[in-house]
Write a structure and sequence with these properties.
Layout lengths: L6 H12 L8 H17 L2 E23 L3 E2 L3 E2 L6 E16 L3 E9 L5 E7 L19 E4 L4 H7 L5 E23 L4 E8 L9 H18 L3 E2 L2 E7 L7 H9 L4 E11 L4 E7 L1 H14 L4 E5 L9 H4 L5 E6 L16 H18 L3 E2 L1
Parallel strand pairs: 6-7, 9-11, 9-12, 12-15, 13-14
Antiparallel strand pairs: 1-2, 1-8, 3-7, 4-5, 4-8, 5-6, 8-11, 10-16, 13-15
Length: 369
């Protein structure tokens, strides 16, 4: 529960939010990484930026418009990694489905010219508003748009009625960019436990819930860990590029091959709801986590997902056979949207997340008083 003992966490949270949207490769992200490094250096003497050369993706502006029969602008976003087009115009056709993070299945439509050539794709987000997401259909040179569920009926009918749509998408790939993870380590022991949270965002949001809150929680966990005896080396990992196919954690996990990593604890999203999602695996490890959660009580519901869905920074470690646990107070209503701003009601859940994480680590004999 939040109280004045969390004032430093709140200051960090507000500061991370203040940098605004922080997509991979952006100036804002680089500036935020410098601040996070300074804060990590206050926690441990072994703190540094772990950088990788990557190709980033950038968007300037875009538009999607119905030409006929009833002209209007459609609220839309572009997938991260979408291709570009200065202009396109064509008729709507159903194109099947689009898989997002191997977690969601969305209806997909294509805009085709008179010869049937595909000019653009449009996916309809099931059950929510239009928000940016990562594109997983492969490197594409044409635009890929996302629209909200409120457009589902329109596109179903448009596919059968020769509806004409036009638009543009001004995007570019930026070679020789940097992915900047911020790392701090505590103790030096044979076994390692990784505690991670991402600090990057999609281009449309400052990401107060996803994941400035998680980043501030991680720093607070690190600050409080100084009062514990450690039975394992603790790696505090703030990742870049989680929103861009987990590039930061994928890169970092490769550098850790050969290390004895006992577990990964991932904090991704501390929203307003009172449902704590626990993405955990393998199943024997989930049982250990579950036994702690059932003892801990708390004014919230716990929802377990095993095996853990792949949509966050625990996934590259889990793929290597390492036990993982992701904790999130999910908040789909503001995910990846401009509505994800500082909200005081999130503070209680942030305080809960700090206490839960420390107590879980103690229960698993990673730390002790």
């Amino acid at each position: 529960m939040y109280d004045e003992n969390y004032d430093k966490m709140v200051d960090n949270w507000k500061k991370i939010i203040s940098y605004g949207p922080k997509p991979l490769g952006s100036k804002a992200l680089k500036e935020c990484s410098g601040y996070l490094l300074e804060e990590m250096q206050k926690i441990t003497k072994v703190a540094y930026q772990d950088c990788y050369e990557i190709t980033a993706w950038e968007v300037d502006k875009w538009e999607l418009e119905v030409v006929e029969p009833n002209q209007r602008i459609i609220k839309s976003y572009l997938f991260l990694g979408s291709g570009a087009s200065e202009s396109f115009e064509g008729r709507v056709k159903f194109a099947g489905h689009n898989r997002i993070w191997n977690m969601y299945i969305w209806d997909r439509y294509m805009v085709v010219n008179i010869k049937g050539g595909i000019l653009a794709y449009i996916s309809v987000r099931k059950g929510g508003d239009a928000v940016p997401q990562m594109l997983f259909t492969g490197d594409s040179e044409i635009p890929h748009f996302i629209v909200g569920d409120e457009e589902a009926e329109f596109f179903q009918k448009a596919s059968d009625s020769n509806t004409v749509i036009k638009g543009y998408a001004l995007t570019r790939k930026i070679p020789n960019s940097k992915c900047i993870n911020v790392v701090g380590t505590m103790e030096k022991k044979k076994k390692k436990v990784v505690i991670c949270a991402h600090y990057d965002t999609v281009y449309a949001t400052a990401g107060a819930y996803d994941n400035a809150a998680g980043s501030a929680v991680l720093l607070e966990i690190g600050r409080r860990l100084k009062d514990y005896e450690k039975n394992a080396e603790i790696e505090l990992l703030l990742t870049d590029g989680e929103e861009y196919d987990l590039v930061g954690s994928r890169k970092r996990s490769k550098t850790c091959e050969g290390e004895d990593i006992a577990m990964v604890l991932n904090i991704d999203g501390v929203g307003r709801e009172k449902v704590l999602e626990v993405w955990c695996g393998p199943e024997p490890f989930e049982r250990k986590v579950r036994s702690y959660m059932e003892e801990s009580g708390g004014d919230f519901e716990v929802l377990y997902k095993c095996p853990p869905p792949p949509g966050s920074d625990h996934a590259p470690y889990y793929d290597k056979g390492i036990p993982v646990c992701m904790l999130t107070f999910n908040d789909q209503g503001i995910l990846h949207s401009p509505k994800d701003v500082y909200t005081e009601s999130m503070l209680d859940n942030m305080g809960i997340m700090v206490g839960l994480s420390l107590n879980l680590l103690e229960f698993l004999n990673v730390i002790k008083k």
